């Protein structure tokens, strides 16, 4: 079956009982072929059927009837329009397949086509509307409480009775509030506030988080996305140039972590949710990519890399590592994986893990981390030297990176910061092979779930969230589903990260949050 944006068609056809065999999606093929390429004008390459047909075949497809009324009896003009869209697909597919082969991207495209059927198979997931509404009320109360607390720390001198509160959503007022307590800020984003040692910074960050919950995840969210008690998001299979998926209407990948909001996504009556999550997959992929001997040995021996890192940076035996030490190690491992500097590490640790570091500690931990994993450091240096060489030759040029699954991405040699000159694009050169390989593995896992669906009858995926897959299944089949999901995820990722073993954490519960 050949089509353009086939996920759309397959979802409709599934309602009629249609089960697809092999598929080829010309839109996905175009995205795989041109990942990272830019138009001559500098804009992103478009992948609508009209754009792809024109670019690859030189064929102009008329689109004047696209928004006409297709709900009644079709006119001869509409039939000709539809036929033209269908007629171009076979020559377009043949052209793209040849170009994919020439670019050594056939395996990547095949993986996407196999995953497509599994993604189109995904079912809606039920939402506990009452539980969601209670969270929205709690968030409203938190906004009011935190605004009052901030006003107490930094009163507004220009206030009039009854209007004492600042506008805490205004960056200018936030800067003024910090100036009133003796802290000069040039930026008020979360990373900047995470680096500020003053109680007001923590309150502002909490307030913003609560305010986002009221705006993004308030009662309107349920009314808009789950009016019938279930949500059916749009899964964009190639949502990022790295190969990662994205999600919209609503974006379930951005639902806050933890049991509160995720606990609102529930299994239907008589069913359970089986949640499978790759354990430390980016660290495992980085170990395979960099060849770091210490990381490879740790994973081969089944050791906890977070505990090892904590022991290395804190200078204590592994057996003495505490839960708090391990939390610190997560910040260090994930923060430094792609070469973060110590100043950024300090803000990252506080912002993402609630870990407060002094300047001296951040510098010390960074140095100790790379002493513990010298192979990782050598990989950073190699890639940095390579990109800097490209940058010196042509700052406006591009270069190619590949994942361990063969996916290609074209990256700009240089990047720019606002108000500053260009600098070599080292970070994307490091993170794309890792994150892209993770995407390769997840797509292969989704494909295996589809291919092996007869092994767990009645099970259906409902969520794809970064390195995680959630499946809904009849409660009596939970044990079988656990084994089925775990095997699919391990078998898919293992060839991509060898010799590093793959680990998958699987839990069963009534909700996505685990309860």
Automatic annotation (TrEMBL):
Species in which this protein is naturally found: Fimbriiglobus ruber
Domain DNA-directed DNA polymerase family A palm stretches: 258-477
Family as reported in the entry's similarity comment: Belongs to the DNA polymerase type-A family.
UniProt-listed InterPro entries: 3'-5'_exonuclease_dom, DNA-dir_DNA_pol_A_palm_dom, DNA/RNA_pol_sf, DNA_polymerase_A, RNaseH-like_sf, RNaseH_sf
Name listed for the protein in its UniProt record: DNA polymerase I
Coiled coil: none
Alphabetized GO MF terms: 3'-5' exonuclease activity; DNA binding; DNA-directed DNA polymerase activity
GO biological process: DNA-templated DNA replication; double-strand break repair
Pfam families referenced in this protein's UniProt entry, alphabetically: DNA_pol_A, DNA_pol_A_exo1
């Amino acid at each position: 079956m050949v089509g353009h944006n086939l996920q759309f068609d397959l979802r409709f056809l599934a309602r009629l009982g249609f089960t697809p065999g092999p598929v080829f999606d010309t839109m996905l093929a175009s995205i795989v072929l041109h990942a990272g390429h830019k138009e001559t004008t500098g804009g992103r390459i478009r992948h609508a059927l009209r754009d792809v047909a024109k670019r690859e075949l030189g064929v102009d497809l008329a689109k004047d009837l696209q928004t006409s009324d297709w709900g009644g009896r079709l006119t001869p003009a509409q039939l000709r329009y539809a036929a033209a869209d269908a007629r171009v697909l076979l020559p377009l597919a043949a052209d793209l397949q040849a170009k994919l082969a020439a670019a050594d991207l056939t395996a990547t495209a095949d993986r996407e086509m196999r995953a497509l059927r599994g993604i189109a198979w995904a079912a809606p997931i039920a939402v506990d509307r009452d539980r969601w509404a209670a969270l929205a009320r709690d968030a409203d109360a938190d906004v009011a409480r935190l605004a009052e607390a901030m006003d107490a720390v930094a009163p507004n001198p220009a206030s009039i009775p009854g209007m004492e509160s600042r506008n805490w959503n205004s960056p200018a007022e936030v800067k003024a509030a910090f100036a009133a307590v003796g802290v000069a800020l040039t930026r008020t984003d979360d990373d900047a506030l995470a680096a500020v040692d003053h109680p007001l910074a923590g309150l502002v960050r909490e307030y913003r988080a609560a305010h986002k919950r009221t705006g993004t995840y308030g009662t309107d969210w349920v009314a808009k996305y789950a009016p019938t008690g279930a949500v059916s998001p749009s899964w964009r299979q190639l949502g990022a140039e790295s190969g990662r998926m994205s999600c919209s209407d609503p974006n379930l990948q951005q639902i806050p972590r933890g049991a509160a909001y995720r606990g609102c996504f529930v299994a239907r009556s008589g069913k359970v949710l089986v949640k499978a999550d790759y354990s430390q997959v980016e660290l495992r992929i980085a170990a395979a990519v960099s060849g770091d001997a210490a990381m490879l040995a740790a994973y081969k021996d089944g050791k906890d890399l977070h505990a090892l890192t904590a022991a290395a940076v804190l200078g204590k035996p592994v057996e003495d590592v505490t839960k708090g030490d391990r939390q610190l190690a997560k910040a260090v491992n994930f923060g430094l994986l792609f070469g973060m500097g110590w100043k950024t590490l300090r803000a990252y640790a506080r912002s993402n893990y609630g870990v407060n570091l002094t300047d001296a500690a951040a510098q010390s931990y960074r140095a100790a981390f790379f002493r513990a994993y010298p192979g990782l450091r050598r990989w950073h240096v190699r890639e940095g030297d390579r990109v800097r060489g490209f940058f010196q030759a042509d700052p406006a040029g591009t270069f190619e990176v590949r994942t361990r699954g063969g996916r290609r991405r074209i990256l700009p040699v240089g990047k720019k910061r606002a108000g500053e000159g260009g600098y070599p694009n080292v970070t994307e050169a490091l993170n794309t092979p890792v994150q892209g390989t993770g995407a390769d593995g997840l797509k292969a896992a989704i494909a295996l779930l589809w291919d092996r669906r007869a092994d767990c009858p009645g099970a259906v995926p409902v969520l794809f969230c970064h390195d995680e897959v959630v499946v809904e299944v009849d409660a009596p089949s939970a044990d079988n589903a656990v084994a089925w999901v775990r095997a699919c995820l391990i078998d898919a990722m293992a060839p991509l990260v060898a010799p590093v073993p793959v680990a998958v954490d699987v839990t069963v519960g009534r909700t996505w949050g685990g309860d």
